[in-house]
Write a structure and sequence with these properties.
The structure is a single chain. This protein has 73 residues and is of the alpha+beta class. It has a single domain, classed as tt1808, chain A. 18% of the residues lie in helices and 32% in strands. The chain contains 1 helix and 6 strands, in the order E-H-E-E-E-E-E. The strands form 2 sheets. The chain has a 4-stranded mixed sheet, covered by helices on one side. The longest helix is centred in the N-terminal third of the chain and has 13 residues. The two termini are 22 Å apart.
């Protein structure tokens, strides 16, 4: 699951949405925040990982071999 925070979105609402997805079986989620130039990575039963200025995101075991290139302007 990928959520992209726009300037008109509420960060708190999208974070709650990501938690809801986790509660419903999400195995890996990325909340991309271009304004803060960071990505929140959501995994079941883990603390949300926040990565500043990532250049790639890995699909890990969920999407083995998948790499998403990312660039913040």
């Amino acid at each position: 699951m990928i959520e992209l925070l726009s300037r008109t979105d509420s960060l708190n609402q999208l974070q709650e949405k990501m938690q809801e997805y986790l509660n419903n079986g999400l195995q890996l989620g990325w909340l991309i925040n271009p304004q803060a130039q960071e990505v929140e990575i959501y995994r079941p039963n883990q603390v949300v990982e926040i990565v500043k200025l990532p250049t790639t995101l890995s699909g890990e075991k969920v999407l083995h071999g998948f790499i998403l290139g990312i660039s913040f302007f």
